[in-house]
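Entry: Peptidase, S54 family
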Amino acid sequence: MSEPPISHSPGQQQEPVCPRHPERASYARCTRCMRPACGQCQVHLEVGMICPDCYRDVTGHSRPQRAHTSNNPNITYTLIGINVVVYLLQWIIPNYWVYNEFAYKADWVAYSHEYYRAITSGFLHSQNDPSHLLLNMVSLYLFGAAIEKMIGNWRYLLVYLTAILGGSAAVWVLEPHAVVVGASGGIFGLMGAYLTIMVALKERDNVRSVMVLIGVNVIYGFIMPGISWQAHLGGFIAGAIATLLCIAPQLMRSRGR
């Protein structure tokens, strides 16, 4: 399966892009020179991510071995792994213990103060419906891998977790008696993130494509029983806002050039 493409229409300004790979959009910037760096070029140190040129200037050496760089969407792989392990635990531990202890029900959370459920529910799935997990993990890979490479590992993780919280918050307000599990709030947050990035890059073709995909999922959420459109809505809004806040400094700098 391929990741959501980044098409380049004639006359559109592609910014910001990696100087070494101008065909790659990237909102992750070197903490030293503030130039964009794609996943292949990023060098991760304890003090943050820097580009290969700054690494050479600081250390006097060429960039470290590939194992120290972030070319793979490792956070996405980790999130998928956590979801799969949790699903297996749902089956292994009897009496629906995992579900009962970590699912989200807003009115119960308000009573018990078990606020951790607002996050943990995003890693649970319907125990009797494996397709729930499968579809969410496919979507997580397709959108997550693309977004992680564009904005960087930790900002991507922040966006994803914020989207899950946003979905839980929307359920709290709109349907507090519902019991909610699933990564779909986070997935819709990634859709919002991807749409935000494509709008910022003026990628009209991709904007239209992702809006069609979002529309299909919204309709599906309304016509199919047992799907929390409230979590989808909250996740989408939270993911879009979190992404905008993450890329806003880069947008302002690029507009000022």
